[in-house]
Design goal:
With 361 residues, the chain is of the alpha/beta class. It has two domains: 201 residues, Medium-chain alcohol dehydrogenases, catalytic domain (Quinone Oxidoreductase, Chain A, domain 1, Alpha-Beta Complex), CATH 3.90.180; 128 residues, Rossmann fold (3-Layer(aba) Sandwich), CATH 3.40.50. The protein contains eleven helices and 17 strands. Strands 2, 4, 5, 8, 9, 16 and 17 form a seven-stranded mixed beta sheet that branches. Helix 4 crosses helix 5 and helix 4 crosses helix 10. The radius of gyration is 20 Å and the shape is globular. It binds zinc ion (2 copies). The site of one zinc ion (ZN) has 9 residues, from helix 2 and helix 3.
Length: 361
Amino acid sequence: MLRATGEPLTIEDVELDPPGPGEVRVRIEAAGVCHSDLHYMTGDLAARLPIVVGHEGSGIVEALGPATSGRLAVGQRVALTWRPRCGECDACVSGNPVLCRYGRVFATENGLFDGTTRLHRGEERIHHLMGVSCFAEQVVVSETSVVPVPDGVPPEVAAIAACAVVTGVGAVLNGVPGTAGRPIAVYGVGGVGLAAVLGAVVAGAHPILAIDVDHGRLDLARSLGATHTIDARDGGVAEQVLALTGAGVPALIEAVGRPATMREALACLAPEGLLVAIGLSSADAVVEVPINDLVQRQKRIVGGLYGLANPRLDLARIFDLHLAGRLPLDRLIGARRPLAEVNEAYDSLKAGALGRIVLTP
Ligand SMILES: [Zn+2]
Ligand SMILES: [Zn+2]
C-alpha cells in the first residue's frame, strides 16, 4: 500500500468487501513490477492515498458478485487489465474500449465503476489503482477488468501479458500498418520495449533496430530478434539509424517517454515516418517538435495507450501466439520474488534489472 509519495510501500492486512454487482473476486497468482506504479510512488502521477498499487496481474476467479454477465465462472484463470469497458460510452461502442470513459473515472476517483472502493481498514477508505490493485493476495474488480487465460499459459506470463506485453506487442501490431519486410526501431528496450521487439518479429519487420543505454537490455533485445542494437550512450542515435537504414526508419516505437528521446526518435524517422509514443512520462513533461521537419517530411506522431488494443480480443490473440511458440513471453521474465519483497523489487527495477520482475503472494 502506498500511504505517502516518496515513501516505501507498506505491507498491511486490510479488509476486502465482497464483490458488488458486476464484480468478481480474484485470488492473485502473479503480479508484474511495472514502471507505471513507480510514477505514482514518486508522485509523477497523482493518485488518492492510501492506495493499493499493482496493475499487472493474473489469478483465479474465486467469487462472483450479483448480476455478473455469465461470461466468467469460479475457478476460471484470468489476467487483469487496467482498462475497464462499460460497453456503452462512445469509445466502447466504436470499438476502442481502452479509451472507455470509465478509464478516467478509475484514474481520478481511484475507485471502481461507482466510484466507491472495496478496500478499507476499519473506517479508513483505501483506494484502487486503475481498478486493479494487484499487489495483494486477493482483489475485487469489475468483471470487465478481467480476461480469460487459456490452459498452458503460466501465471507470470498471463500477468505481464495484460500490461507490458499488450502495450509493446500491440503498438506494433495495431499501431504500425504494413510492417512486414520494412524497418522498424524500438527506442527503450525495458519490459515494454522488448515486447515491442517481439511484436516486430511476429509482424515480419526487417531490420529491427533496438536502441537503449543498457548493454544487458540490448543483448536481450538481440536474442529476442532485434537485428541491430544501438547504444544511445555513444550519442548520435539518429546518425546511427540513418547510417544503417539510409533514409531513416518508416516506424519507431518510443517506449522511454522522455523529451530528449522523443526528439531523437523523431530525427530517426524517414519521410512519412510514424512515431508511436507508448512510454509514460511525468504529468507535466513536454517535448518540442521541429515544425518544418514535421511538415516538410510529413512525419507523424501518435500516442498509443495500452498498445492501441482491444484487450479482450488482443490478449486472446497474444495468448494464442504464445502457445504456438511465436511469442516467447516467458523470456521477458527476470526475477521472481515474494510479494513481501515489493520494495526491494522496485529498488531492483530502478537499478536497471534485466527482465520483468514478477511478484507472487
Ligand atoms: Zn504497467
Ligand atoms: Zn465505455
